[in-house]
């Protein structure tokens, strides 16, 4: 097949795909998830604006409003595996069905058709100009145009275009991997009354997000890893940004790590 015939031809698309995967996932995990939804760390208004722009540029066609994401995600933690969970494998036929449902709820909240309880809407980062731009059809289509232009210029064969939908919907794809698969498959460190599991034992692909059992146990921890092999690639990034004073970490991480280790042992004894 020509796809494998001159593999050097596929380098630009591969690099584009991989870089986009990790940059858009970085924004989702760092900004929308850990910061907006869970307040795992704080940042000033200038840093917040900077990461709003980073999110807009890296997520492009699948840009997620930090405010809407955080609201939905807080609902997910409060109502995990129930009918009020915005995305639960238990209430969807398949992963695409769940993605569609998640999209509908996102749009309903974005358009103000659904009111979310006040206790979920505290401390939400909001920059209406960027949110309006990122959520506009024109912006989404323009970004798709950018991706299509890249594929038109560099795709060595028609097969490479199969990657394009993943890039167009990257935010939804990242969400679905965790919200569907990490609520169905994996291993657990903590026994809880929900289906959250650690999908991978070493998670480089999802930047630590796949330690979902750990995350449901300690939602606002800056380190999603708990056991020695559970490396969270964003944890050192967060520590460095804290050290650089770009963001403010809440408590000394050593004390957090210590208390978590203690509780981890404790949970194992009772498992
Ligand atoms: Zn979950
Ligand atoms: Zn979470």
Describe the structure.
With 271 residues, this protein is mainly α. It has two domains: 1-172, no CATH class; 182-271, no CATH class. Helices cover 56% and strands 1% of the residues. The chain has twelve helices and two strands; from the N terminus they run H-H-E-H-H-H-H-H-H-H-H-H-E-H. The protein has helices at 2-5, 11-37, 45-59, 66-78, 95-110, 128-135, 137-154, 164-168, 170-181, 212-217, 234-243, 253-270; strands spanning 41-42, 248-249. It is globular and about 50 Å long. The site of one zinc ion has 7 residues, from helix 2 and helix 4.
Short structural summary:
With 271 residues, this protein is mainly alpha-helical. The protein is 56% helix and 1% strand. The chain folds into two domains: 1-172, no CATH class; 182-271, no CATH class.
Please tell me what the overall shape is.
globular
Approximately how much beta-strand content do the residues carry? under 5%
- Order of strands, widest sheet: 1-2
Instruction: Please give the alpha-carbon distance between the first and last residues.
Output: 51 Å
SSE class: mainly alpha
How is the main sheet built? 2 strands, antiparallel
- Compute the number of helices: 12
């Amino acid at each position: 097949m020509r796809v494998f015939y001159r593999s050097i031809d596929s380098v630009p698309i591969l690099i584009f795909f991989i870089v986009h995967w990790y940059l858009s996932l970085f924004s989702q995990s760092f900004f929308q998830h850990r910061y907006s939804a869970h307040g795992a760390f704080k940042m000033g208004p200038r840093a917040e604006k900077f990461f709003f722009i980073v999110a807009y540029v890296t997520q492009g066609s699948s840009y997620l409003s930090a405010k809407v994401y955080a609201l939905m995600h807080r609902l997910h933690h409060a109502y995990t595996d129930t009918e009020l969970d915005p995305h639960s494998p238990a209430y969807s036929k398949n992963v695409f069905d769940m993605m569609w449902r998640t999209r509908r709820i996102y749009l309903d909240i974005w358009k103000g058709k659904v009111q979310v309880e006040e206790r979920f809407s505290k401390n939400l980062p909001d920059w209406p100009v960027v949110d309006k731009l990122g959520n506009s059809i024109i912006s989404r289509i323009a970004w798709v145009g950018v991706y299509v232009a890249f594929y038109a210029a560099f795709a060595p064969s028609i097969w490479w275009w199969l990657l394009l939908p993943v890039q167009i919907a990257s935010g939804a794809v990242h969400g679905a991997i965790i919200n569907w698969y990490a609520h169905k498959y994996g291993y657990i460190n903590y026994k809880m009354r929900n289906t959250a599991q650690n999908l991978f034992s070493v998670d480089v692909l999802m930047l630590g997000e796949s330690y979902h059992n750990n995350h449901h146990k300690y939602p606002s921890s800056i380190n999603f890893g708990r056991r020695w092999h559970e490396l969270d690639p964003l944890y050192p990034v967060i520590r460095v940004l804290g050290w650089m004073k770009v963001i403010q970490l809440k408590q000394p991480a050593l004390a957090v790590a210590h208390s978590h280790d203690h509780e981890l042992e404790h949970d194992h004894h009772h498992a």
